[in-house]
Amino acid sequence: MFYTSTRNKNIKVTASQAIAQGISEEGGLFVPCELPQFSLDKIASMVDMPYTERAKTVLKDFLTDFSEEELDYCVNGAYATEKFSSSKIAPTVNVAGNKNILELWHGPTCAFKDMALQLLPYLMTVSAKKTADGKTIVILVATSGDTGKAALEGFKDVDNTRILVFYPVDGVSPMQKLQMTTQDGENVSVCAINGNFDDAQSAVKAIFTNDEIKAQLAQKNMMFSSANSINWGRLVPQIVYYFSTYCDLLEQKRIALGDEINVVVPTGNFGNILAAYYAKNMGLPIKKLICASNSNNVLTDFLKTGEYDKNRKFFTTTSPSMDILISSNLERLLYHMSGEDDTLVNELMNALSTDGKYEVSKTLIDSIQTVFDAGCCDEASVDATIKEHFDKYHYLCDTHTAVAVEVYDDYVKRTGDDIPTVIDSTASPYKFSKSVLTAVTGGEEANLDEFAMVDELNKISGVDVPKPLQALKDKAVRFNNVCDKENMSEMVFKLLNL
Ligand SMILES: *Cc1c(COP(=O)(O)O)cnc(C)c1O
């Protein structure tokens, strides 16, 4: 199978080129030229498989230049059961009736980013061996919290890689900060920057494209790559769990083979929901993809009207991983749904970078709406949903998951469509203990320190605290570098000993 670029469909690369390179040279994103098709019989054959075998079945049709041994090595390493707090890796839990929750946060950092970032380092090192002859890959990450930690944990002590993570000094939750500053591994570095996430992101992008820095790296046999969801290697592992949850629903006899399901995804960069779109187009019986946003509802407006406009107020919410106004992966959807119109994608993306907005044709938005529904949820509804689901079903959601649950409840009220549904749960509630505890109790414990809140939430809910979060309490802080955003490139040199 080959991959092309959303901005130039004359480009043709292999999976390993797409993964090692990260982004196409003219700025487009790599997309598969065609999708493998899964028959219902093939899906049925996956029911009895463990997660690792389901993953290999899906991935081998996408990573056709990987050998069987290479794929075994990658998948068995990434999804080793001792790294996950559930032997199912990504279990599907029934809440009530047709409402099921796909828990994607049982990995080492307790957020769904692990599902992709545990596998990506393996895919990348195998790809680099094939295409970049033994260079050391330097992963540069700007993070607002979850990606940084998941990338650190995925890349720690992986041969021939270095990873440098920059986070805004005041822009992450206390738990997220501790997760990063206590990170172990010989090839990792973490640095706070005086600035916000956008400053970190812009500085990282500038370093990526600085020819002088690239040349210095090349002299030391190093190259940059990206662990962001613009990388195909981040997206492809996410297709797997949609097949896996369907198999789990079959196994639990909640659906029969061929029955359609709806899928609800708490969305930021549009990566996770795009993976569900690919699964649907590969033959997985999905009816609607429901895109859930918090108060930063640029995607809700787009999916309802066809106009994407990021010129709006930015809200800092209790679901920070969805506080985003430029959803990069929407570019891939526009490419596929416009009949692979790379000229149109160029026009739209140029308009987005110059005017901050674009509008698609009525035909295009109509066809997008046959597949996607959308809704958004304000902060008060997030709290109310966490409380209601805990009181009624004894199910404890994190803030991101609660956005999706609330949007789904609205969808059912609005449409009457209550077929079996999977709602993605993207983080452990303990990663956002303060918000979750406040929602459940009505607010009194807000002054406790982070671990006291974790204990209190555990006492009230009886839900186990994930071991990796519990262990942070006794871990020493290793990284306390802080630098100004103007000095980030010097910091990169210093951290790489160049
Ligand atoms: C990254 C993230 C999201 C958003 O996922 P996208 O693929 O960017 O749409 C939602 N919830 C949590 C907890 C996340 O870390």
Automatic annotation (TrEMBL):
Biological process annotations from GO: threonine biosynthetic process
Essential cofactor(s): pyridoxal 5'-phosphate
Keyword line: Pyridoxal phosphate
InterPro entries the record matches: Thr_synth_N, Thr_synth_N_sf, Thr_synthase-like, TrpB-like_PALP, TrpB-like_PALP_sf
Gene Ontology molecular function: threonine synthase activity
A Gene Ontology term for the protein's cellular component: cytoplasm
Cell inner membrane is among the record's keywords: no
Catalytic activity, EC: 4.2.3.1
Residue stretches making up the Threonine synthase N-terminal domain: 3-79
EC class of the enzyme, as a word: lyase
Residue ranges annotated for the Tryptophan synthase beta chain-like PALP domain, each copy included: 105-331
Domain of life: Bacteria
Residue numbers of N6-(pyridoxal phosphate)lysine PTMs: K113
Family: Belongs to the threonine synthase family.
Name of the protein in its database record: Threonine synthase
